[in-house]
């Protein structure tokens, strides 16, 4: 393994850090989260135009940069350092790979260039609270996760006019603002059903979206309700594929008529391709991205804390001169260094197991650094409005959304075959 970054990677990090320098302050972050989008749209378009950030994971033939996991980790570390609220995670890390893996040529041509250019924002809609398991982070994909059997979740119904979706999802990243939704829905009834992904534009009739008051304002979430909403299948048809261009580019005419453009009368049969393995394949890049964000956030929180203890005086001395404080900071630095090593090893080695372990390590480091930052800032640090709480809420929110460290490690160990169930003499299953 060559741990050294290339000149291009070093330049990429320097350029992105410089672009975020004037927008990384807590006041700018808080102001951006309180807008109707939940992020700074002007800054996002600038990052798209000047740096091509939204197209980082999109192939070059579709207008993207075609970068690998190491470049993704570098970018996410800088975004985490700035705690930048943006549609990057939902669109670039989740939606773009799904469009690439499952979309037809027409759908990829219509959607990916716009996503790479920052002209389109997208997100993945998964019902229930099983996002981490569906994406392969904390366990195997649960049975009937999209529809929940006979009722609940999101159901897909095929009509002579096209696909219709009904149901709801309560915890969707950027669910209130994304312009294109990739909705996982159950089709085919209870006994012969299967889960498919569908494209739903923000202008589709019957689509109701509500923004949540999330713990971490820098990672906004929304509730998505689908009430007999027209949709287009993501993937191949056995019939004529006249495609996603109408639905993805705007869907104004199709939405007004109540049927997605490109779906012919009679509704061609959907592809039998199972989307669950494709979703589980996102575990490796998503784990690397989340872990790198956590490392960047922890490094920034630690730097702010070190700056504070160098100036804050107590008993006539700066508190950074006390041995107990130095020991705390040294322990945090060691934990942060271990997390960074785990992240870039996972990016280099690939695989869901390494990325899951890196995410667990990085999440633990961020929680430890953020907690100590609050304590070492003293009384002011315990006020909810203090900047240190932005980092603490990011750590807590990521655990709730993507799984706590013990579940990440447990699933990684199970995948690696470290624990093999055996029968003991009493007939009780032991590990």
TrEMBL record:
Q: Where is the Acyl-CoA dehydrogenase/oxidase N-terminal domain?
A: 6-119
Pfam families the record matches? Acyl-CoA_dh_1, Acyl-CoA_dh_N
Record keyword Oxidoreductase present? yes
Kindly indicate where the leader peptide sits in this chain: none
Q: Which residues form the Acyl-CoA dehydrogenase/oxidase C-terminal domain?
A: 289-415
Q: Which CDD domains match?
A: ACAD
Q: Name one GO molecular function term.
A: acyl-CoA dehydrogenase activity
What InterPro entries is this protein classified in?
Answer: Acyl-CoA_Oxase/DH_mid-dom_sf, AcylCo_DH-like_C, AcylCo_DH/oxidase_C, AcylCoA_DH/ox_N, AcylCoA_DH/ox_N_sf, AcylCoA_DH/oxidase_NM_dom_sf
| SUPFAM superfamilies the record matches | Acyl-CoA dehydrogenase C-terminal domain-like, Acyl-CoA dehydrogenase NM domain-like
What cofactors does the UniProt entry give for this protein? FAD
Keyword Oxidoreductase assigned to the entry: answer is yes
Per the record, the similarity remark reads:
Belongs to the acyl-CoA dehydrogenase family.
Q: What is this protein called?
A: Acyl-CoA dehydrogenase
Q: Which organism is it from?
A: Streptomyces palmae
């Amino acid at each position: 393994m060559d741990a050294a970054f290339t000149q291009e990677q070093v330049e990429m990090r320097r350029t992105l850090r410089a672009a975020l320098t004037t927008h990384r302050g807590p006041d700018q972050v808080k102001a951006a989260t309180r807008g109707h989008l939940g992020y700074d749209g002007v800054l996002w378009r600038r990052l798209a135009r000047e740096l091509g950030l939204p197209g980082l994971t999109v192939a070059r033939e579709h207008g993207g940069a075609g970068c690998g996991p190491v470049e993704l980790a570098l970018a996410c570390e800088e975004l985490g350092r700035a705690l930048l609220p943006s549609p990057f995670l939902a669109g670039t890390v989740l939606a773009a790979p799904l469009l690439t893996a499952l979309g037809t040529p027409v759908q990829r041509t219509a959607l990916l260039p716009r996503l790479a250019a920052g002209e389109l924002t997208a997100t993945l809609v998964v019902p229930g609270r099983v996002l981490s398991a569906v994406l392969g982070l904390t366990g195997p994909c649960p049975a009937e996760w999209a529809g929940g059997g006979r009722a609940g979740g999101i159901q897909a119904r095929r009509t002579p006019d096209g696909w219709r979706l009904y149901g709801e999802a309560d915890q969707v990243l950027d669910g209130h603002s994304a312009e294109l939704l990739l909705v996982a829905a159950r089709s085919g009834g209870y006994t012969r059903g299967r889960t498919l992904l569908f494209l739903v534009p923000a202008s589709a009739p019957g689509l109701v979206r509500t923004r949540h008051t999330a713990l971490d304002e820098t990672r906004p979430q929304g509730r998505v309700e689908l009430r007999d909403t027209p949709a287009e299948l993501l993937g191949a048809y056995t019939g004529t594929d006249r495609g996603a261009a109408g639905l993805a580019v705007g869907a104004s005419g199709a939405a007004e008529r109540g049927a997605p453009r490109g779906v012919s009368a009679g509704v061609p049969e959907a592809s039998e391709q199972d989307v669950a393995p494709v979703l589980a394949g996102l575990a490796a890049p998503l784990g690397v991205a989340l872990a790198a964000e956590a490392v960047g956030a922890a490094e920034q929180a630690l730097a702010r804390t070190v700056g504070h203890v160098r100036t804050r005086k107590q008993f006539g001395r700066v508190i950074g001169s006390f041995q107990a404080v130095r020991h705390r900071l040294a322990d945090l630095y060691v934990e942060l260094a271990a997390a960074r090593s785990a992240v870039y090893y996972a990016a280099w080695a690939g695989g869901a197991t390494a990325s899951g372990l890196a995410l667990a390590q990085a999440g633990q480091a961020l929680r430890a650094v953020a907690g100590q930052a609050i304590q070492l800032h003293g009384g002011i640090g315990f006020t909810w409005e203090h900047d240190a709480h932005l980092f603490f809420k990011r750590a807590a929110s990521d655990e709730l959304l993507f799984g706590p460290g013990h579940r990440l490690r447990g699933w990684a160990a199970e995948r690696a075959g470290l624990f093999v169930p055996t029968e003991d003499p009493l007939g009780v299953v032991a590990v």
